Amino acid sequence: MVSATNVLIALLPLLTIAYLMVGRYWPATRAMPVAWGVAIVAGFFGWGMTPTWIAAATINGFITASNILYIVFGAILLLYTLKQTGAFDSINDGFASISEDRRVQVVLLVFLMGSFIEAAAGFGTPAAIVGPLLVGLGFPPLAAVVVALTGNLMAITFGAVGTPLIIGMIDIFDDVPVITTALDAQGMGVEQWVSEIAVFAAMNHVAVGILLPFIGVAMMTRFFGEEKSIKPALEVLPLTLFAWASFSVPYFLTAYFLGPVFPGLVGAMVGLLLTVSALKAGFFHPDEEWDFAPQSSWPDHWVGDIQPGETSDRDGAVAADGGVVQQMPLWKAWTPYVLVAGLLVLTRVFTPLTGFLKSNLVIQSGDLLGTGLSGSFALLYLPGAVFLVVHAITIGLHSMDGKQVKATWAETIEKVTPAVVALLFAVATVQIMLQSGAATGSDSMLIVLSEGMAGIAGGIYPFFAAFVGAFGAFLAGSNTVSDILFGTFQYGVADQIGTSKTVMLGAQAVGGAIGNLIAVHNVVAALAVVGLVGEEGRVIRLELIPLLYYGTATGILTLLFSYVLFPGVF
């Protein structure tokens, strides 16, 4: 039986993160380096790791984090490219022209468009983009933030083109001998297994997410409507169910047949196409349009520095010939993301091209300090390369000048820089905890934690698996980092209590999405872009409503999957 002392030592890095970020409100850029230091102390004194192993694990963590940052940088660069050229203004106005009913706009912009942005860019960008779009349409800024954070949960699990599962699970599990050995016995590789995890995660989301678009609308009408009731939301229930189905069917089928890269992207694109087409054909429009009460009646804390309905910086801009800049056609505004989707499919499905990209311009670390650990950085194959290529194409397609390109890069660097330190040290912390076993020939810190948790919760632990994943995302503000932090831990618990590891990791992947609802830096960023400061507590309290629904429903499903429906799955 695992000792309480070892469990406590293994917990120290995670408790440090929780105390500094939740108790002291430290940003991740400060908390993660401290947690890394605590992990070093725990590894050296508690586990007997040598300085060489600690250094190798840290370097390996930095390499893994660099893979994430490359994707993040490319995704956000393209996002800001479209903002700079006015493409997002066109996309926004295209949605507004379909319906002026706020409930319909929430379904289109928050659930579907937000899911598309999450699938294309990830890392907290949907709320930061959709929030200002809603404010531009006339939403109270506080309402815009609350609903924007709620709507894209189903896409978060797969993040930016599968990053949470590819980086957060595949790259991590490849370095865990306990997992690779067990998979070898099953005749599976890590990549194949994580594709199965993706299916179970998608299955959870499809079942629980049936109410997700409705919840976003209901929170708006209940907390920000003049009636303070969910009754107006019930009037658009058919629309929310149609949008859910239009998204969920291609989402699940893509996860089943193609793995973790494309579910959110395909689901959102098909969902948008079908839902917009249905609305344009006259279906699902409520009998009467719903709007907020006059702004004069709004509480002061609903509005900050940016007034609802304010136009973007490009509106009314003067062209070089003295005329007014014309709005970009919708086809042109959407083309970059269509190119992203097409190139990602091509580079993942066309085997000769995939092989070329995986074998050229790959930076290999080799054996790190004689430990057997190694890392790599595939410059051409990682999705970051696709985003950079499409950014270059968009410069010409959208006729950007040098000033715009410079501004785009400056905004991107400003956005990504805070994530660099946080991600480097978060992943390094986890690598030390992961490699503490291989370094000493004993169980790693995460395995010890798993054994301790299994002993406490026993057979009902699957109910809590999603909440553990949510806790990780709450701490780190990232589904990817949550999977890195707790993926091996969840595997260990499933192994200890004798339930399906695949089902348990599926719940972890869903939980990592749920935690983004209340991740402090996501909330702060979403409030900042709509001009509100100091309302974090109010937003987090409201977001606990969808969090508790989603976590509880996922927990019940995980118990059902583990013991009734899929008890024989690895």
From TrEMBL:
GO molecular function, one term: lactate transmembrane transporter activity
Membrane protein topology class: Multi-pass membrane protein
GO cellular component: plasma membrane
UniProt entry keywords in alphabetical sequence: Cell membrane, Membrane, Transmembrane, Transmembrane helix, Transport
Listed transmembrane segments: 6-22, 34-56, 62-82, 103-123, 129-149, 156-173, 193-215, 236-258, 264-283, 337-357, 377-395, 416-434, 454-476, 547-566
Localization terms from the record: Cell membrane
UniProt entry tagged with the keyword Oxidoreductase: no
Name of this chain's protein: Lactate permease
Source organism of the structure: Haloferax mediterranei (strain ATCC 33500 / DSM 1411 / JCM 8866 / NBRC 14739 / NCIMB 2177 / R-4) (Halobacterium mediterranei)
Species classification: Archaea, Methanobacteriati, Methanobacteriota, Stenosarchaea group, Halobacteria
